[in-house]
Amino acid sequence: MRRESAMSFVVWLIMVVHPVKLVYANVEGDALHSLRTNLKDPNSVLQSWDPTLVNPCTWFHVTCNNDNSVIRVDLGNAALSGTLVSQLGLLKNLQYLELYSNNLSGPIPNDLGNLTNLVSLDLYLNGFSGPIPVTLGKLSKLRFLRLNNNSLTGPIPLPLTNITSLQVLDLSNNRLSGLVPDSGSFSLFTPISFANNLDLCGPVTGRPCPGSPPFSPPPPFVQPPPIAVPGDCLLHCVSGGKSATGAIAGGVAVGAALLFAAPALAFAWWRRRKPQEFFFDVPAEEDPEVHLGQLKRFSLRELQVATDSFSNKNILGRGGFGKVYKGRLADGSLVAVKRLKEERTPGGELQFQTEVEMISMAVHRNLLRLRGFCMTPTERLLVYPYMANGSVASCLRERPPNEPPLDWPTRKRIALGSARGLSYLHDHCDPKIIHRDVKAANILLDEEFEAVVGDFGLARLMDYKDTHVTTAVRGTIGHIAPEYLSTGKSSEKTDVFGYGIMLLELITGQRAFDLARLANDDDVMLLDWVKGLLKEKKLEMLVDPDLETNYIATEVEQLIQVALLCTQGSPMDRPKMSDVVRMLEGDGLAERWEEWQKVEVLRHELDLVPLPNSDWILDSTDNLHAVELSGPR
């Protein structure tokens, strides 16, 4: 009895000291456990969701903030089945709900409308049925809403149009019906967002609603004589299966006709997707809202004005693909304009445009969203949102003295976020996108220092004139996997290698090329040196001095382990990026590291066996150092 009384007193004392925290954690834990009991989990991904633990922040696939509030549930592509529960609406601080690519069914709970902090709701590629809850219109912070590829029915709720923050919307491939709203935020989205809902109607779909008059046909189009207008971007158009050409050069009647017809022509092009070879110019000031898919097509003049004629003072960076300029559009929004440098090939415009569209279909919060593009006979430009905090490389090595360094929790988030972005490119894009230049300079940071992978797809875009097997090695010395250097053939495992080197940049604050000099021994490879320091527990020699002692040694050790697993010499031995995500989330790293250690011991024993002709020597040069970064001997 005394023991029970003592326990009761302890519980009472905890609740007095931290009453809100205990109850709050219980509510969130109970809500997530209710979800678990409602799901079938053949792969045991929810095994760690132990209801006896008060705090769900220790569970895999659950992320919490510093106040131990759940801000993210990431269960995409987990082979789960079953239905959602209304208790999910109790996760008041939840920002990301990822349940895509499962076998979930039943209705979407109305209680999700209580998640007022939600930024991303990804329920696509499931079997959800019933209506889209009207309550989702209350999610004023929502930026990503993807409900595509389900069996949802009924109308599109009008309150959704009031979400002004909405950047990505995909309701395609459902059974929705009724009028597609064309007001509020929905006016920004194109027909592809609502495609393959046969009972939807309205101007966006091209189908009149029952009882409504048919859409008025566009005024007759009089084809003007072709007149070249230098410097303006080209818009591909199709009309009734035949090509239309011409330049908008003047004439009020002709200009008005083209202004009216351009969106319809663009939509027709999107539907048919047939190669054509005729173009006409569309200056931005005459039709500023021409879109192809989710992309806007800018005119060169518009981007010249935005960047002050590509002034050197607006250069944000230079790279292997070209220069990046800061710009301000007419609506006041800041953008980053990448001006590609490439060899022009006749007839390459359509292929370039196709590759750009493929890049734009890769939409994930940890990927840099392509906002638009511009194409002329002499220019190729890509337009992205401006990232206020620059790149990881600039934050590590170019920060002003008055700005604090990236703290350790932020570096951990960057490691996980960039891994999630790369995993999406490899596993959720069709065809998969290989980055081929993963490094700290290509990991950008948004306003909240969330990692955003940039420059993905550009290697393929720049090589569109080549065969599918690219022989030109693209990338940055120090980040290039050994098999890529020797064969010129890339795979997702070359990205894994680059990611591993990027992790070392994140930990040390050093450029990959400069890391070799830290070893201070021409006979020791960089990665062997890192292994040695890890084994000897001399982490202070690796950690960025800017962090001083403000880091957690065990977490640094785990991140180094992931980096070494990613940079193994054989691509077959490296983990997939999806495995890296799981290891960073706390699932499976210890087992994989122990297995690798056993292999390393065996490999070391074999290295001690003398080999014939083993007395060869390589010159120690800067170039050799750079190649040595590719992997251990």
- What is the CATH architecture annotation of the largest domain? Orthogonal Bundle
Question: Could you give the count of β-strands?
Answer: 26
- What is the CATH topology classification name of the largest domain? Transferase(Phosphotransferase), domain 1
The average pLDDT score comes to: 75
Oligomeric state as shown: single chain
Would you kindly provide a written description of the structure presented here, covering whatever features stand out?
With 633 residues, the chain is an alpha/beta fold. It has three domains: 24-201, Leucine-rich repeat, LRR (right-handed beta-alpha superhelix), CATH 3.80.10.10; 222-386, Phosphorylase Kinase, domain 1, CATH 3.30.200.20; 392-586, Transferase(Phosphotransferase), domain 1 (Orthogonal Bundle), CATH 1.10.510.10. Helices cover 31% and strands 15% of the residues. The strands form six sheets. A seven-stranded mixed β-sheet has the order 1-4-6-8-10-12-13. Strands 18-19-23-24-22-21-20 form a seven-stranded mixed β-sheet, sandwiched between helices. The N and C termini lie far apart (66 Å).
